[in-house]
Amino acid sequence: MKGLIGKKVGMTQIFDEKGKAIPVTLIEAGPCFVTQVRTAEKDGYAAVQLGFLESKPKRISAGELGHLKRNGLPPLRHIREFRMSGEINLKAGDKVTADVFAVGDAVDVVGISKGKGFQGGMKRHHFSGGPITHGQSDRQRAPGSNAATTTPGRLFKGSRMAGHMGAARVTSQNIKVVLVDAARNLLGVAGSVPGGKNGVVVIEEARKQ
Predict the structure, then answer these.
(1) Does residue 66 come out as left (phi exceeding 0), alpha (psi in the -120 to 50 range) or beta?
(2) Rounded to an integer, what distance in angstroms lies between the CA atom of residue 48 and that of residue 54?
């Protein structure tokens, strides 16, 4: 299992050998530091914990600071775990860079989508809205009837209605790595990934290759 924590830089484009333009999202992937290695014997499962983005000590909780200092690591803002299978060749304190991935690899990128505030049913759930004609004058973007009759006589929990949209965990699955620049800690993936510029993302080996 390969994985990194990174920061979305923005989008650009590159051209393949046939001259076709490929939209690319650039991610500042690492350097990440191994903050802990979990084993099946000790913890019940195998995983590697990575830390990313150095920060001021006052921005980190005392417990996390102690956890990092135990392995001689700087204050790291973001800590994530990556489940592993097979032998783990890393130890606490090691540095992991963008070259763990290669051009052509398929990855999943997890991030927090852009928040869009309070939105109506048409934008949030792709409802079709009401008819434009037949006498109605103010129902073009209304969701329409959403309740049942006497039984159950109420709305079910989870009904699709207007509400807060975005700012949720989203995964872009099975996207291709098209650029690896280990010297500048840059990773380029084909297409878009969740979130805005400078948003923190997690890059993992694709599950649905």
Answers:
(1) alpha
(2) 19
CATH superfamily of 3-116+172-205: Translation factors (2.40.30.10)
Using one digit for the tens of pLDDT, what is the confidence trace for 3-42?
999 999 999 999 988 999 999 999 999 899 999 999 888 9
Report the C-alpha gap between 107 and 87 in whole angstroms: 21
CA distance 94 to 96: 7
Q: Is the pLDDT of residue 107 over 80?
A: yes
Which ranges in the chain are annotated with CATH 2.40.30.10? 3-116+172-205
- The whole model's pTM is what? 0.85
Alpha carbons 172 and 98: distance in angstroms, whole number: 19
